[in-house]
Task: inverse folding
């Protein structure tokens, strides 16, 4: 646990940040390269706790890794996956994307993770995998997958209202199932849909037939997954934390922004705009400027629930009441984020309470003091954003940020000028 007092901005935060690679694209690139018909070289892949553990998990299953001096990495699939012991850490992408590969191995693979990961939902993914023909013991971490060297596939129906990753996890490996997979969702709305779009796009980039075939149904055709060199985009959700620093400080922050992307780019910029940021796009970059006044707003974050923590921190300093909705499922993220935000923002003085699917936030005078991170990188980002305008916000563990950025504190202090 490393305590960290969030730097308070002495004036407008102005500058640019080079944001590391996308966690979501890197996880998918590793999995698809592991399943491909030859070696793939990855450029710009994220190197942080989640993606290191992903490499570790795939290496356990027999995947080869060669790091090059220029920071790129070659991923070499094995002739056949082998079983082993997989540590998922706190990564949803590992606990939901890797079990199908373990089912393709011959033998038993045991999955364990952090204490906080043991309460994260995974049963719908395991149910779907069982419907596709795999044998599994357990409905939460720790669980075991008894692989037989192949998975039949065919058709499965799951409730993916708890996480889009249940859908992505099954689709990513489905081309390697004997019959491919037609997957149906039955239940409340599927959250974070752009991440399913990212899964389908990255499958198609590797020559796989992958489509949404109905409002809540997807089809992946059986067949080879092409080996392919691939460049990973910067992480636009992590970019949003830095862009957010412009709003309460009347600053201007610039990051690289891909011209075409399947990340939830427009949703992210739309949220910053709704909160009072002025968004300017130039070729390959985006700049967000602030006025020093954050606007109270009603935000539907169904498609971009990862923004909830920083949006809540901004709304706590806004010029009027605000709310966030569409994010009931983030009670199952790295921590129960709705409870954590209610607790921490209330303790700093804001009027915050949970609703059925989000938060209602009434800004009030705020004071510095302890900020719990709950092992959650995005709770740490929220504490950093709050600390820009509230002196003395002290995070109990800045180490939580290593989940998706190796040096968040360094990048943040460099930008804020601490
Ligand atoms: O597939 C992915 O890479 C992700 C999907 C989303 O999960 P949920 O659908 O559980 O929100 C997102 O919040 C998570 O950070 C990454
Ligand atoms: C929900 C998140 O992570 P994970 O991939 O572990 O689900 C997140 O990064 O906000």
Result:
């Amino acid at each position: 646990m490393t305590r960290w007092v969030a730097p308070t901005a002495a004036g407008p935060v102005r500058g640019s940040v080079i944001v590391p690679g996308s966690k979501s694209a890197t996880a998918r690139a590793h999995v698809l390269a592991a399943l491909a018909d030859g070696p793939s070289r990855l450029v710009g892949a994220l190197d942080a706790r989640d993606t290191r553990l992903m490499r570790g998990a795939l290496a356990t299953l027999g995947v080869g890794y060669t790091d090059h001096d220029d920071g790129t990495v070659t991923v070499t699939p094995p002739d056949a996956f082998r079983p082993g012991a997989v540590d998922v850490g706190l990564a949803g992408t590992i606990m939901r994307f890797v079990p199908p590969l373990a089912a393709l191995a011959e033998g038993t693979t045991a999955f364990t993770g952090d204490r906080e990961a043991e309460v994260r939902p995974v049963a719908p993914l395991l149910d779907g995998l069982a419907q596709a023909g795999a044998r599994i013991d357990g409905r939460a971490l720790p669980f075991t997958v008894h692989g037989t060297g192949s998975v039949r596939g065919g058709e499965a129906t799951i409730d993916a209202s708890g996480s889009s990753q249940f859908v992505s996890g099954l689709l990513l490996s489905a081309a390697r199932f004997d019959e491919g997979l037609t997957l149906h969702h039955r239940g409340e709305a599927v959250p974070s849909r752009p991440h399913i779009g990212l899964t389908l796009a990255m499958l198609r980039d590797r020559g796989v037939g992958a489509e949404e075939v109905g409002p809540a149904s997807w089809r992946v055709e059986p067949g080879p997954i092409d080996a392919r060199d691939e460049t990973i985009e910067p992480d636009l959700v992590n970019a949003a934390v830095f862009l957010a620093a412009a709003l309460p400080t009347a600053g201007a922050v610039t990051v690289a922004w891909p011209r075409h992307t399947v990340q939830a780019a427009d949703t992210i910029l739309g949220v910053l705009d709704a909160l009072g940021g002025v968004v300017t796009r130039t070729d390959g970059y985006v700049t967000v400027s602030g006025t020093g006044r954050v606007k109270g707003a009603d935000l539907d974050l169904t498609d971009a629930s990862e923004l909830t923590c920083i949006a809540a921190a901004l709304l706590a300093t806004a010029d009027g009441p605000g709310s966030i909705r569409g994010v009931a499922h983030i009670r199952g993220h790295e921590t129960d984020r709705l409870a954590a935000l209610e607790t921490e923002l209330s303790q700093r003085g804001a009027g915050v309470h949970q609703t059925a699917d989000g938060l209602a936030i009434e800004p009030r005078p705020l004071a510095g003091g302890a900020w719990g991170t709950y092992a959650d990188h995005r709770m740490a980002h929220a504490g950093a954003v709050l600390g820009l305008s509230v002196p003395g916000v002290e995070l109990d563990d800045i180490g939580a940020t290593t989940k998706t950025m190796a040096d968040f504190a360094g990048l943040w202090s460099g930008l804020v000028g601490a």
User: Anything to note?
Assistant: The two ends are 21 Å apart (CA to CA). Residues 24, 27, 92-93, 163-165, 168, 191-192, 195, 305-306, 329 surround shikimate-3-phosphate (ligand 1) (CB under 6 Å). The chain has a mean pLDDT of 98. The domain at 4-20+234-416 is CATH 3.65.10.10 (UDP-n-acetylglucosamine1-carboxyvinyl-transferase; Chain).
